[in-house]
Fold this sequence. Notes:
Blueprint: H1 15-18, H2 21-29, E1 32-34, E2 40-45, E3 50-55, H3 65-87, E4 91-96, H4 104-117, E5 124-126, E6 134-139, H5 146-150, E7 151-153, E8 161-163, H6 165-182, E9 187-192, H7 194-201, H8 203-216, E10 220-224, E11 234-238
Amino acid sequence: MPAEGVRLDLDPAPLFEREGLEGEIEALLEPRVELPSGGHLLVEPVRTLIAIDVNSGRHDGRGTAPEQALAVNLEAAAEVPRQLRLRALSGLIVIDFLALPEGGPRRQVAAALRAGLKDDPEPTRVEAMAASGLVELTRRRGRPALHELLTGPCGIGGGGRVKDPATLAFEALRAVRREAAARPEAAVTLGAAPAVIAALETGPAAAARQALEARLGRPLALVNEVAAPGEPAEIVLET
Length: 239
């Protein structure tokens, strides 16, 4: 008997595509998070901490600059807890809010941040806001961060990250399923970096590839290509 809340999905359309999950996951791997006011967050995991920078939008003439800074900070204080949960970020987290005068405005932002963290399944300690606007959080690690699961070091200098071969392999299979549905008689060639091809030949991605080949009724031709780290696969359909 299936577990409560679990159902068999019989819809032929790919689940990730149907529910818009691909775009949601892509957004969670990007550092920039837009805020309603026109400001934005920059969420950047670095070696020893998670840095979250709050940036204001262009002043729209409504209210004073301090009032606008408070409005952006309140939006950020509501959004940061959501991003922590969705991205599964943990450890030391430093938020650089826009500078605010002492007293009420800082207390408002701190209260909004604590309210957003109240129902967080992972206990989080919040330090007082510094005069510069910095707030330090310490969040318990409950599961690996999303960027740890789906990306790896870029490997070309710097500290950037790119999607790992397994992630690219599964993305390629979803793309093949989508494109092959429109041309059911076409032969499919999938070209990608050797590491991505290897992921398609072994492990979970290989099982998914075999299931897709059975569904399509024909094999996929896998071709090693020269590609930059994180570069998506190239899919060619020929009749």
